[in-house]
Design goal:
It is built from nine helices and 14 strands. It has about 300 residues and is α/β, with parallel strands linked by helices. The chain has three domains: about 150 residues, Rossmann fold (3-Layer(aba) Sandwich); about 70 residues, no CATH class; about 60 residues, no CATH class. The two termini are about 35 Å apart.
Length: about 300
């Protein structure tokens, strides 16, 4: 049963290209005002799913609903915005000219183009460079303009394919600040990324897709509960290697002075571990307690690290 706040639902999406099965029953839900990460190894079906939602690919089976109505045909719904991974702007035009051109292409009425362009220039933090040809822009500035062109018509749902690929950390922060402002305005965002740390820190929920199927979905806490459990990894750096690790701990394969242990109750288990190390005649120089991460969940589910 769909929730009233669900703006986009994909159910049982299947798509094959010849003998290659790209989607094998994938399903997901995007909620109003949400920044949802779509993660998966290369070839998992992410791009095919995004293209199907955008009506660039026709499903063999399954259904896609936008605001409760089925999407069909080969025309992108007007409520959708699309930001491709490739920089899809005109290098010889200025930022303002690019935005105006995309506004007209996206069906913004001529009388409203100037208002939409002014909004996009402010949202992308490009007001002071608005009338310069973008061929002189940095990679991060081009990325922000790329997003601006994709949302110039004020869509309610935006699909973003790797919106921060190839940009520096400062530019990534500005892009995510821009995306956060869109969600505050009630816009729903679905993005693919290879940066697990970004997805963990910035996205409200995550869907993990592999072999054409969504194999997990939820907040980080929900995914951890479903997979690796709420244990913590404790790492101790000792003054010298131990003769034999305490019960429940193991020595790091590369640095024998490091001990690692999985604990479920830090307040109970850590003092016992420290006492065992001390009883073995070693001193603890440093302690690190790490919570389960999205990367540990991803590796648990797919058996692979997520790399570009």
């Amino acid at each position: 049963m769909a929730n009233h706040s669900d703006v986009l639902t994909v159910t049982g999406a299947r798509k094959a290209f010849g003998k290659v099965v790209a989607l094998d029953g994938a399903s997901l839900t995007l909620r109003e005002g949400e920044l949802l990460a779509l993660l998966g190894p290369n070839g998992a079906g992410k791009t095919t799913l995004i293209r199907a939602i955008a009506a660039r690919v026709q499903l063999d089976q399954g259904e896609i609903r936008l605001f409760g109505r089925p999407l069909s045909g080969r025309t992108t719904a007007p409520e959708l915005g699309i930001v491709p991974q490739e920089i899809a702007v005109y290098p010889s035009l200025t930022a303002r000219e690019n935005l105006a051109a995309f506004a007209r292409l996206q069906g913004v009425p001529p009388r409203d183009v100037a208002e939409h362009v002014a909004w996009a220039l402010k949202a992308t933090a490009l007001e002071d460079r608005a009338d310069e040809p973008i061929k002189g822009f940095s990679g991060g500035m081009k990325r922000r303009l790329n997003i601006g062109c994709g949302v110039i018509h004020w869509p309610k749902v935006v699909l973003l394919d790797e919106p921060t690929v190839g940009v520096d950390p400062q530019s990534r922060d500005r892009i995510y600040d821009m995306l956060a402002e869109l969600t505050r305005q009630g816009v729903s965002l679905l993005l693919t990324t290879h940066h697990l740390e970004e997805a963990e820190a910035r996205c409200s929920r995550t869907v993990i897709i592999d072999h054409g199927r969504a194999i997990a979905a939820g907040t980080l806490a929900e995914l951890v509960e479903q997979t690796v459990g709420r244990h913590r990894i404790v790492t101790l750096r000792l003054d010298a290697p131990v003769a034999s690790p305490p019960a429940g701990a193991e020595t790091d394969g590369e640095d024998p002075r490091l001990l690692r242990a999985r604990v479920t109750d830090v307040a109970r288990d850590l003092p016992a571990l420290l006492a065992a190390v001390s009883a073995g005649g070693r001193e603890v120089q440093d302690v690190e307690v790490r919570s389960p991460s999205l990367q540990s969940v991803f590796i648990h589910l797919t058996g692979r690290e997520l790399r570009e």
